[in-house]
Amino acid sequence: MTVELSSSTVPNSFADILEAARRVAPRLRERADDIEKHRCLPADVVELLRGTGVFRMAVPRSWGGPELNSTEQTQVIEALAMGDASAGWCAMIGMDTPIYAGYLEESVARELFTDPDLITAGLILPVGRADRVPGGYRVTGRWGFGSGITHADWVVAGCQVYSDGEPERGPGGMPVNWRVMLARRDDFEILDTWHTTGLAGSGSRDYTANQLFVPEERSFSLARPRREGPLFATDSVLRNMPGVPLGIARAALDLVREMAGTRVERATGLPWTDTYRVQMAIAEAEMELGAVRYAVYGSLDRLWDRLASGVEPAPDERAAAVLARTNSFRVARSIVTRMVDLVATAAIYRPSPLDRWLRDLTTMCQHVIAQDQVIQSAGAHLLGGVPQNPFSLGLLP
């Protein structure tokens, strides 16, 4: 597949994309209230993100892209999330376009994805139904949590495949034939369902289809990538998710450390810089953030190296990446909760972003990837048992 870069001004290397993300983060912070108020990313914010190169991060070098590894992708998402959580979340979701392209025939991918900065949204889990018909499928269903669907170019929809009214078995004897359908955003009806206390600006709305025809070549199985390498392993769309909670926790700590330089403890008259409880709260939060961040990036590096060398990762290596990912959400929420408690009433008044960050983290911690079933799945994989969520481990059911 040959990709013509849409603009020579869009960064196309890790260093340049990361620098661009860090440069726009303060602008995203300035727009955070508007993003939350509109319950989706305004058009100019979308273009601001597009201009950083974040949506082309996974475009392979052979296609003219930067081909960033999982660690590099996560660092970019982390930098954007320091500006605004919803923007970071949508960037993390929207950059999956070239990953999905790697599951399509090259000629089809070339036809559909001519711009490296296209954005894809949608739920890949098989909650919809695809009835096999000549030339493709008739797709019906309702999918939730379509983060970024309000500004996406393409939408994916996970389906269970049926033939003659009966469910098909999947590749290799899988109990379900799970295929992901790809269609234009306008092919779906988008429902205004995203009324939440956190991540409000992600526009994670429900969407539906009723007997939508999707050609066979615009569908794919996660069990059968067309290209080789770590970018196209089953869990590749999950690996950069920790960037969002890590970025929020870092932003919260930086904010409170800056505040500490001018605040005074009311009861004692001591400056915060000399107050024991403040010193302990900051140090413990830094300790925990440093540990989980090290675990996230270290496990990502090891997993990538294994996959790049063509060696099946050991159970401990897969589990380490999954547990660090899940823990990043929980630790970040704990850190921001403690920062809110430390700042107390000042945290609930604007322009302090602490209240919004806490709501954002509480919402994203309800994502399936941060749930107990993922921890159970890691434990089961380590013990040779049955994971409840094998997909989180990069395994198919």
Automatic annotation (TrEMBL):
Task: List the InterPro entries.
Answer: Acyl-CoA_dehydrogenase, Acyl-CoA_DH_C, Acyl-CoA_Oxase/DH_mid-dom_sf, AcylCo_DH-like_C, AcylCoA_DH/ox_N, AcylCoA_DH/ox_N_sf, AcylCoA_DH/oxidase_NM_dom_sf
Q: Which UniProt keywords apply?
A: Oxidoreductase
All copies of domain Acyl-CoA dehydrogenase C-terminal, residue ranges? 245-371
**Residue span(s) of domain Acyl-CoA dehydrogenase/oxidase N-terminal:** 19-93
Record flagged with keyword Cell inner membrane: no
One biological process term from GO is:
fatty acid beta-oxidation using acyl-CoA dehydrogenase
Q: Name one GO molecular function term.
A: flavin adenine dinucleotide binding
Write down the Pfam families for this protein, in alphabetical order: Acyl-CoA_dh_2, Acyl-CoA_dh_N
Spell out the SUPFAM superfamilies in the cross-references.
Acyl-CoA dehydrogenase C-terminal domain-like (SSF47203), Acyl-CoA dehydrogenase NM domain-like (SSF56645)
Cellular-component GO terms for this entry:
cytoplasm
**Matches recorded under PANTHER family:** MEDIUM-CHAIN SPECIFIC ACYL-COA DEHYDROGENASE, MITOCHONDRIAL-RELATED (PTHR48083), NRGC PROTEIN (PTHR48083:SF5)
Family, as annotated: Belongs to the HpaH/HsaA monooxygenase family.
This protein is called Hydroxylase
